[in-house]
Amino acid sequence: QGLYSSVVCPGLVMSNMTYRILPVFLWKLLMPIMWLVSGSTAVFVRAPLGRCASSVWLFKQKPEYLDSLVKYHSCTSGLGRCYVEPRKMDVDEDTAEKFYQKLLELEEQ
């Protein structure tokens, strides 16, 4: 039917939803550590536009050229450059096909 589906991950995004997980005083203690760690890991997205980098990048791609067994991650380098990193999901093609067939069955119901 010309429909495509891809999986994206925005990375670790600090938002008002994130702050509700722990009490405010605990976040004040953790934030300096998180900022230090963010320089050495790519999954902590600091730039506001970086939070949706994978979604925007994916939107600009031709769906038929994308790998359906890949998850596209928004990442940020230590210098703040945003980029998208594809990572293979732990799902083989047979399992993916079974999921798809089950989805079609559910849609018919």
Automatic annotation (TrEMBL):
The chain crosses the membrane at residues 24-45. Keywords: Membrane, Transmembrane, Transmembrane helix. This is DHB7 reductase. GO terms for biological process: cholesterol biosynthetic process. GO terms for cellular component: endoplasmic reticulum membrane. One of its GO terms (molecular function) is estradiol 17-beta-dehydrogenase [NAD(P)+] activity.
